[in-house]
Amino acid sequence: MRRRSELLTTYGLNVVSVRPEAGAVSLAIERPNRRVLPTEDVWSRWNPERTWGNRNLLVGVREDDGELLILSPGKQHAPHTLIAGSTGSGKSVLMQNIVLAVAATNTPRQARLVLIDPKQGVDYFPFEGLPHLAGPLIVDPSEASARLEQLVVEMDARYGKLRAARVQNLAAYNEKVASSERLPVIWVIHDEFAEWMMVDEYKDAVTQTVGRLGVKARAAGIHLVFAAQRPDANVMPMQLRANLGNRLILRVDSVGTSEIALGEPGAEALLGHGHMAAKLEGSPGIVFAQVPFADTGFVERLVETIRAESSPQEK
Ligand SMILES: Nc1ncnc2c1ncn2[C@@H]1O[C@H](COP(=O)(O)OP(=O)(O)O)[C@@H](O)[C@H]1O
Ligand SMILES: [Mg+2]
């Protein structure tokens, strides 16, 4: 890594990552012309498994082998996810991919989306037509904390149902009960949550409710995806960070921020525009990947198709 600036100044090679392997060291070097990966194209290679609903989400294309990077908060990985990256690094685009993946692979009966965006929802207007939305976009901190508290109540109620049905998790519950009694997975997508962390009541409420949602939420089928620019201690208490076990880290502004967000240096050398370092609980090491890009036209067409396909009784 000390050679990074030498390689850059002498040879014009921008080393993005260094990875030790069995008998070699792999260097990833920035290519002169980067390509945008349209979500539409990447999805054509994706065959999500669908029993009743899907909790495996496509979040990127791996840099090492070109395979799809799938986030699995329902099973393999941690139940909750932290997205970090400086302004313009691609956080909202990644969250949009997640929202689209949920909506395209689940009916509104199978998955509900709670969208929270302190930036007045500008990045999420096209999603307002999704029948999966459990209420309008939340743009107010007191509403957001009330909603999160409500989810803790919902989680406890679901635990009661699981116990009564003598099953361990939502998937088993949904297999056992009549189809009319099945419960949807709930996804909470919270963009730019640091914006509100200056508000003490919000900070305390979020930290507490996320703590209570912790690992129990997986069995109850509640998953959080939170994004912030710099998840350092003053915007993000340790306890909160610890509860968001999966890390999808885009380019950050310093080594220090990378150490906090990713647990090690490296995210400061990412290229921006959806270039990502992923550390997923339960999977070894860090995976470098490119997040696909969903342009407005694709989003609008997809939302329209999903609306048309979900019948009124399905909603
Ligand atoms: N995955 C991506 N592929 C290509 N371009 C991207 C990608 N992600 C972001 N960008 C570009 O960067 C801009 C900012 O992305 P955005 O997600 O709004 O950043 P953030 O939310 O982190 O501030 C986008 O409008 C787009 O032009
Ligand atoms: Mg954003």
Features:
alpha/beta; binds adenosine-5'-diphosphate; binds magnesium ion; 315 residues; 11 strands; two-stranded antiparallel sheet; globular; 2 domains; nine-stranded mixed sheet; Rossmann fold
Question: Can you walk me through this structure?
Answer:
The chain has 315 residues and is an alpha/beta fold. The chain folds into two domains: 1-33, no CATH class; 36-309, P-loop containing nucleotide triphosphate hydrolases (Rossmann fold, 3-Layer(aba) Sandwich). 33% of the residues lie in helices and 18% in strands. It has a nine-stranded mixed sheet. Strands 1-2 form a two-stranded antiparallel sheet. A hairpin with a 4-residue loop joins strand 1 and strand 2. Helix 4 runs parallel beside helix 6 (200-213). The termini are far apart. The mean pLDDT is 91. The chain binds adenosine-5'-diphosphate and magnesium ion.
Q: Quick check: average pLDDT?
A: 91
Share of residues in helices:
25-40%
What hetero molecules are bound to the protein chains? Answer: adenosine-5'-diphosphate, magnesium ion
From the helix content, strand content and strand pairing, which structural class follows? alpha/beta
Biggest sheet strand order reads 4-3-11-10-9-5-8-7-6
The multimeric state of the shown protein is single chain
User: Within the CATH hierarchy, at the fold level, what is the topology of the largest domain?
Assistant: Rossmann fold
Main sheet characteristics? 9 strands, mixed
H-E order: HEEHEEEHEHHEHHEHEHEEH
In terms of DSSP E residues, the strand content is: 15-25%
Could you give me the name of the CATH homologous superfamily of the largest domain?
A: P-loop containing nucleotide triphosphate hydrolases
Overall shape: it is globular
Q: How many strands appear in the DSSP assignment?
A: 11
Q: What is the CATH domain class of the largest domain?
A: Alpha Beta
Work out the helix count: 10
Tell me the number of structural domains: 2
- Measured between the Cα atoms of the first and last residue, the distance is 53 Å
